[in-house]
Specification:
Lambda Exonuclease, Chain A; 8 helices
Length: 349
């Protein structure tokens, strides 16, 4: 759902399908904050000529990892390449765009005094936030280009209203005062791996205990898939621990599609395991970047992928690999120590 530009940035003259959670692919939470980009060294940049010498999007070697991009690589390495390195365009989906809209509404609701955080007020925010979304992302207008009477749009907005209303059955915003909303977090591990992401909400108790909250507009996963759903939350918890030396007390996933709340109380050993997993994942990404070997991994999610025309599994051909292929192996990522050493930041991107 998130653009691959979360992990890369055009340098020089140039200017998410995340797995279903019991629902349709794309029915996942997306923060309404601005896309975060990062500066990369010039040796990692390859310009792609467009038309008569114009400079278009550039291909860059990956330089950081977010939960979405980690999920992409685990789902399908070739999908990761298409999104992060090739930066192939993807069409907006109704489910993903609705998730963005609902997130924006829930974020903005906390601007109001506690007593005014009601379901009618939240629903009244939807038209204005939809207008803002269309202004910031004009491509979403294409979703309803063939809906001249506005019937599908009305139904789509009504579903957004239902999701917002359901939230009030799961949490009471009049009793919440979030410490942070749409919080950008970033840290660099001792290994050199940079982790980053945007947390929907951070609550801090008077006693100092931290709760990380994420909204999902899809349905809660079946129990056997709960661990996969918690991966994103443990990723965030790891970043917060490395930044603040505080293990969050609770991780909470709020599923608006099914009306479920999934909670997990992490311990330090959980975060250390996640860090080891991410280091191994990053080694695999670096090796694929170095060799240009990005293998597709067919799953049932392929049916919703925008890149079938470029995928060998569907008879397609990937674009020419835009990065130089190295002839020697890179230095291995250093194993991170269990205490200290990380640096980073929490706040606006």
């Amino acid at each position: 759902m998130e653009s691959s530009s979360e992990d890369v940035v055009p340098v020089g003259g140039g200017g998410v399908v995340e797995g279903p959670e019991g629902g349709a692919p794309g029915e996942v939470a997306v923060g309404s904050g601005a896309v975060i980009s990062e500066a990369l060294s010039s040796e990692a940049v390859v310009s792609q000529a467009v038309g008569s010498g114009a400079v278009g999007p550039v291909a860059v070697a990956p330089a950081s990892l977010s939960p979405s991009r980690a999920g992409d690589f685990m789902q399908c390495p070739l999908l990761y390449r298409f999104r992060v390195i090739d930066r192939l365009p993807e069409k907006p989906s109704p489910a993903a765009t609705r998730g963005t809209l609902v997130h924006a509404v829930l974020e903005r609701l906390f601007d109001a005094p506690a007593a005014e955080r009601t379901a009618p007020r939240a629903k009244s925010l939807i038209p204005g936030q939809w207008d803002r979304l269309r202004e910031s992302r004009p491509e979403v207008v294409e979703l309803f280009a063939d809906d001249p009477e506005g019937e599908r749009l009305a139904g789509w907005l009504a579903e957004a209203e239902r999701l917002v209303e359901r939230w009030f059955t799961l949490e009471d915003p009049t009793r919440l005062e979030p410490a942070e909303r749409e919080l950008f977090v970033e840290t660099e591990l001792e290994s050199g791996l940079r982790l980053r992401g945007i947390i929907d909400r951070v609550d801090v108790a008077p006693t100092g205990e931290v709760r990380i909250v994420d909204y999902k507009t899809g349905k809660a996963p079946r129990p056997e898939y709960a661990e996969g759903a918690l991966f994103q939350m443990k990723f965030y918890a790891l970043v917060v621990w490395r930044l603040k030396n505080v293990v969050p007390r609770r991780l909470q996933l709020v599923y608006l599609g099914s009306g479920d709340v999934l909670t997990y109380d992490p311990v330090l050993a959980d975060l250390e395991r996640v860090e080891r997993k991410l280091l191994a994942l990053w080694e695999a990404i670096r090796e694929a970047t170095r060799t240009g070997e990005w293998r597709p991994r067919p799953t049932k999610l392929c049916g919703w992928c925008d890149h079938q025309a470029h995928c060998p599994e569907f008879g397609g051909t990937p674009p020419p690999y835009p990065l130089a292929v190295a002839s020697s192996a890179p230095e291995p990522v250093r194993a991170a120590e269990s205490e200290g050493g990380a640096q980073g930041r929490m706040g606006p991107g």
